[in-house]
Structures
1.
Amino acid sequence: MKDARWELTAKLGKDVSTWSWGRLHQLTLKNQTLGTAGPGVVQRLLNRGPWDLGGGEAAVDATGWNAAGGYDVIWVPSMRMVVNVGDWDKSRWVNLTGASGHAFHSNYTDQTDTWAKGELYDWAYGKAAVDATTKDTLTLKP
């Protein structure tokens, strides 16, 4: 217990009222090309985070970590979805990152804050719902 108190005080400060699991349990999204082993400047350009997270391996909102290796989050669900099979348009979902794999695109991590808060987006499924939420349409012709 004393060792734990010393460790937490060193990491989080003396004021216990400011302690939170999320300040230790953080997720950094690492680009799987040069974000894990590239030069430091490239890693800083490609990677995003950290995000303070709650949860643990046994929670519904699972976040994994290895206590022997520290508190950093090492795995998470890449998407969350709640499906209403009685009314598909009442289903909800969120992606961990965004809809783009390009590090400098606005959709690279545009869903991550929502994901980290445990929130979901409406999932337009039927034609009327899709039409109501469509902003742009791309038509491909041979």
2.
Amino acid sequence: MTGTFEAPTLDYAALSPLIALAVGLVAIVLTAVFRPLKRLAPGLAILSMAVAAGCLVWQFGTEADLVSGSLRIDGLSTTFSLLILIAGIVAVLYAAGDIAGRQVGRPDFLAMLLSSVFGMVMLTMANDLIIFFLALEFFSIPLYVLCATDLRRPGSLEAGLKYLIIGSLGSATLLFGMAMIYGGSGGEVGFQAIAEGLTKGGVISDSLVLFGIGMITVGLAFKVSIAPFHQWTPDVYQGAPTPVTAFMSGATKLAAFAVFARFFLVALAPETDQWDVILAVLATLSIAIGNLGALTQSSLKRMLGYSGVAQAGYMLAGIIVATADGVDALTFYLAAYLAMNLAAFGALIVHERMTGSDSIASLRGAGNSHRIVAWPMTIAMLGLAGLPPTAGFLGKVFLIEALADQNWVWLAIVIVIGTMLSLAYYLRVVAVMWTNDPAPQGEDGHIDGDLLVTGGTPPWKDLGLVVPIVIASVAVIFFGIFPDPLYDFASRAGDAILSLTG
């Protein structure tokens, strides 16, 4: 019997964000070939991401399966993708004066960054196991290279290699778990088809499925820095170029938690009673290990790395409750976390370009000498600590409310205790900046007399660097006082999950 191949119907409007990013990626690669066009690469990267963001706004309200159901555009994918694109645009601006971009060749650096953004946006749309894995690798592999782009620093090369080895282990574990789920669900790859397959023939109790859930959990835990699978995080955060760290700290969590929510709350919905306890234990470990690890750090980048481990534990609460309200709270908190991290790392970039140091001690007296460093860093630290009137405070309140509504009171208490513990290291940074005299200054008038970027525009006068820092800082405060616009935006993600699960 001869079969006939039918090509899937393509909805080019719904696919337009991915198309815009792909066209931009090709254009940037071509600028590397035609050297006179190299200067256009940063503008092309920003333009392609801005166009993709416009396409996402155009598709707000659209809910449709794409390419034979392997991709899906809905409120979850549009909200998370927009936040990822914001992180990507800011990363381009932060990297404009960075030595890593100059060493590797700016078009090459930007092409890898845009490739990672493309993979992340695709991952938010992933609706089957194949796209899930391909998109995860599409964004991970360029990040391995980006972490190693500061070629003159052994720490950068070490960060790239360590991230590659640990990331590959996480990917292999994830793929092994996918194979188990594929077999246990009766040979299904689509998320909704997997959920249907798990409910047939008593397969729910099958050890094959439970083993697969465990492996997928471990694989995703590697990607979002959930303890005890976080070992790479502080080393990579410290060794990677700071603009890359700023990007990956927020965008990686956005992409991974998007597919975390879609896969666990849709494909594994019949198994909720099996995996929610596992995630709750991981969340508790992550909160404890992340906060305790951050207490002893002298490097701000390493401290923020351990902070990210604890924050991932808080974010897991939005998945554990397995409700639309939980996804809304998760999305709100991720948006706030992105703003707080962009403010903190942006301020750190300015500081590093003046001093060459990322140590907490080197921030001494910044409140008196360099307000462009001190104010955004203070706002970011207060937000990450969960203090009012910041969006970080409301984000934790929403997560705790979602937990309490679903009788996860003990985990809500863990979050409160973790937040109290985190005050010790977040407020230490604030105290160093505002309660000490400025650090010794050299003849050039800069802290330690060691200005990394000599000539050109001083970092505190670089509008491409300062404007995103100010906007991110203002957003942390604004959405802490007026949360409704951001919560309405975040609720699109929860509505998308609700429409799939009924």
3.
Amino acid sequence: MDALTAALGARLEEARARTLDLLAPLDDATLARQISPLMSPLVWDLAHIGNYEELWLLDRVAGIPTTSAAYDDMYDAFEHPRAERPALPLLTPPEARAYVADVRSRVLDVLAGLDTVTFAPWPGLVPHVYDMVVQHEQQHVETMLATLQLLGESDPARGYLPPEAGVLRPTSRPTREEVFVDGGSFTMGADVACAYDNERPAHERAVAPFLMDVTPVTCGDFLAFVDDGGYAESRLWDPIGWDHRRRARLEHPQSWLRDGGGGWLRNRFGHIEDLRPDEPVMHVSWYEADAYARWAGKRLPTEAEWELAASWDGISDKSLGPGQDRPHTREPRPNLWWDGTPSPFGPLPADPVDGPGSPHGCLQMLGDVWEWTSSDFAAYPGFRAAPYREYSEVFFGSEYKVLRGGSWATHPTACRTTFRNWDFPVRRQIFVGFRCARDAPAETRPG
């Protein structure tokens, strides 16, 4: 095995260790049941990870037929929505563990024998397919963490025990709350090897000058909106969002609890804690974020504005985040799930001392919380589906809103300033928050 195949194998094994470590504390009954109709049974995620790996790295790269056509159907995320997956004849937890272990063993055997000069039968593409499989598994770990958060909210007695936090929590405040971002044309998207099809191709995008919040909106900020009756003011809400708020009886972010004395608590993985006003607000829908922004006299940023505010300059690849693989920078790395230790197992407070910042002065644009944008999920000019339509193309449309930036639960392999996530605007179970923007008044513009 040469250096390249060894590196690909190490990335696969790192992702698998994270998956198995996350699920290890859970009994088989918890793994097999559906905790919420919004999410799959955890055992489905586990077997799906193995099936995806088998389809791409054994069947399509090596020409080795998959174990079972029934598995290929049952663990096809596009064919079977989450709500119906518990009715499928899923593998049991022991069977799923054995299945993913067998697939991995065969994948490593194939990898050891790959011709790294030509990478037959897919010259130039095979390493990217391996990295796609690694990103896929890391993304499912974050999905499973969202499921565990719902487990703790629905059944605190069986809540998930996070590892002890090992990150200092600074409490400094910034000297300003907004930064001016000059407009003009910039290169949006990426053509780097790790980029997904919806990030491609890199293209020029024009943006008018705007003001962007330095940090994500905090729990304390959002509490002011709650206390001011923001959930009762229909004029602040998108009409569809207002109808959803009434039907779902939303009165505060998911996982918030009143303490009975006028204060607030939060449920984090089944553990009831004091609400931290300095942390970024989390588990809010696009509709809640949009209503808050309107209440604050602002708006949600477009994804072009978000990417411009987060992007690095010409010194190095802007698809990387602050402090990632940049020896010339002094910024610490973002609060992403690097190896799980040390980790706050949640977002850091807004405004950390010397936090990872963009050249424009925005902080925490990668990690901590995903951030809603105002943009619908749409193709870039010149988009080409690769390697399959069901990853992105079938989701383009006004039903989905774009999220940017990753969260504390996102692994760096699945996080870039160009990375595009998307979800329905009603969704709150993901580790999502937001920051606000507004048009730049003429007097704020240089010259």
4.
Amino acid sequence: MNDYGHELLFGAFITPVAQPAQQAVELALAAERAGLDLATFQDHPYQPRFHDTWTLLSYIAARTQRIRISANVHNLPLRQPAVLARSAASLDLLSGGRFEMALGAGGFWDAIAAMGGRRLSPGESIEALGEAIEIMRMLWDTEERSGARLNGKFYQVNGAKRGPAPAHPIEIWVGAYKPRILALVGQLADGWVPSLAYLENGLPSLGRMNQLIDEAAEAAGRPLPACGVC
């Protein structure tokens, strides 16, 4: 696997358990004291045993000084992308540029539907993810003066005002394992966040998966390195 010259980042993948209430917070503080670069948190809004991840991220941003924070990954079907983009920009400003956006297409569809989310096919969820990425980048682009517009199949913005601009260029990382969504990573994303437990053949899978990302990036005309493993 190639690191493409990216600076290596090391982090913690923290389960946001609601009891004990401060456990995830204490683990994030320990990660910062240990010198880690990232504290990341699962996002399962339908899981009553977990804190709401966005609330937890905001609280931890206020409790920490240096460590970067992210979901791992945000459950897009239950988090409207235009609102999520504004929330991300605000948290990035408040934290001094320490927030990165990580997104998932969705997977636990019965639980998502039980919370009022739309049930999508795998192909539809990937298409929706692509639209969401485009909307987020438009809303963060305050250099463009016209309103943001996208008439997507799943998400629409119709002249939405842009901003606030985040404190730094927020990267968009995607959790992906199958060929079609890996291609989307290469076409649109800034980073890839695979979890070892979901790799069918463990670490040896990463080389081939990274190759699929590279091929999609090159086909889309993106110079390598388009993105890397986070």
